[in-house]
Amino acid sequence: MPAEDISALLDLAGVFKKKLATPAPEFTPTLRRRRIALVFFENSTRTRFSFDVACRYLGAGTLSFTASGSSVSKGETLSDTIRNLEAMQVDAFVLRHASSGAAGFIAGITEKSVINAGDGSHEHPTQALLDIFTLREHFGATDGLKVVILGDVQHSRVARSNIFGLQTLGAKVGLCSPATLLPNDAGHLGVRLFTDLDRAIAWADAAIVLRLQLERATGGFIPSLEEYSSHFGLNDERLEKIRKHLLVLHPGPINREIEISNNVADRIQPPGYSRSMLLEQVTNGVAVRMAVLQTILADKTA
Ligand code: CP
């Protein structure tokens, strides 16, 4: 996506956010003739509900699909599921799936719009957009901003989308991770690589801390949770040691006291060396997803 398109989308999200902050906000129902299927084959709290809220504000009807309770349990395939929902006159799919490439695959078998709400360890574009929105709102611009993405990069769809989006908007991106949790192509992504957390945070203006994917942690990627936390966990002691003010983001859900300490996760204002944007990111997620839906699906005659 070109920089100007991302910027236009973030500008629109800014307009929505301003209005969302007013009592009982009302929006032109530009999606009132649209029916949007929220198709979640994997669990989600933030993404699913923020898309749902965004659809409601813009007047769209929604179909909410979760794999549990559906005919997936009887063996129905992803493509058959999508075709059957399409037969109910759906205009767009918001799809989360455990397989990398699932959204691209579905976009190839339907004429309807497909929005990737996270596919395996591939991409999570709307999360990156809301992260970038949050950074841009705080710092005023992203050009030249130094952002370190910290933790389990290898299994993170959020990391990949953020690398592409941030670099497109002129930010400098660093990755800080144990060597076993860095993707094989990390050296070709145009990022600065760190294995020392203190050096990484001394360099960065902001950190996007990633969830350690505990479901995979037993696969020999890290020696133990304690060691991971002691080398790569972001906490007050580290920030105080290097006297570094850092804006802290995390896509959620968080593993408290593993990749991020309670103090750092919960500190939304001074005093202290960090400022947590975790809940602000969630608030921003609604505005950003409204902007995405409006840009892709708005009925110009509404
Ligand atoms: N950040 C994120 O994708 O959270 P959910 O899994 O709760 O949607």
What does this structure look like?
With 302 residues, the protein is of the alpha/beta class. The protein folds into two domains: 3-123 and 283-300, Rossmann fold, CATH 3.40.50.1370; 125-281, Rossmann fold, CATH 3.40.50.1370. The protein has helices spanning 3-20, 46-57, 78-86, 102-107, 125-139, 157-168, 197-203, 214-217, 225-232, 236-242, 262-266, 278-297, and strands at residues 35-40, 61-66, 92-97, 113-119, 146-150, 172-176, 192-194, 206-209, 246-249, 274-276. The protein has a six-stranded parallel beta sheet, sandwiched between helices. A four-stranded parallel beta sheet has the order 2-1-3-4. α6 links the parallel β5 (146-150) and β6 (172-176). α1 (3-20) packs across α5 and α5 (125-139) packs across α6. The protein is globular and about 60 Å long. The mean pLDDT is 95. The structure holds phosphoric acid mono(formamide)ester. Residues 44-48, 118, 124, 127, 251-253 line the site of phosphoric acid mono(formamide)ester (CP).
* Strand line-up across the major sheet: 7-6-5-8-9-10
Q: Which shape, going by the Cα principal axes? A: globular
- Return the domain count: 2
What is the makeup of the main sheet? 6 strands, parallel
> What's the architecture of the largest domain in CATH terms?
3-Layer(aba) Sandwich
Could you tell me the number of beta strands?
10
Q: Please tally the helical runs, counting DSSP H or I stretches of 4 or more residues.
A: 12
The bound ligands are: phosphoric acid mono(formamide)ester
**Secondary structure: helix percent:** 40-55%
Strand content: 15-25%
CATH topology of the largest domain: Rossmann fold
Question: Radius of gyration from the CA trace?
Answer: 19 Å
Q: Regarding CATH, which class of the largest domain?
A: Alpha Beta
Helix and strand pattern? HEHEHEHEHEHEEHEHHHEHEH
Poorly predicted segments: none
Q: What number is the mean pLDDT? A: 95
First-residue to last-residue Cα separation: 27 Å
Looking at this structure, what is the CATH superfamily of the largest domain? Aspartate/ornithine carbamoyltransferase
Q: Tell me the structural class.
A: alpha/beta
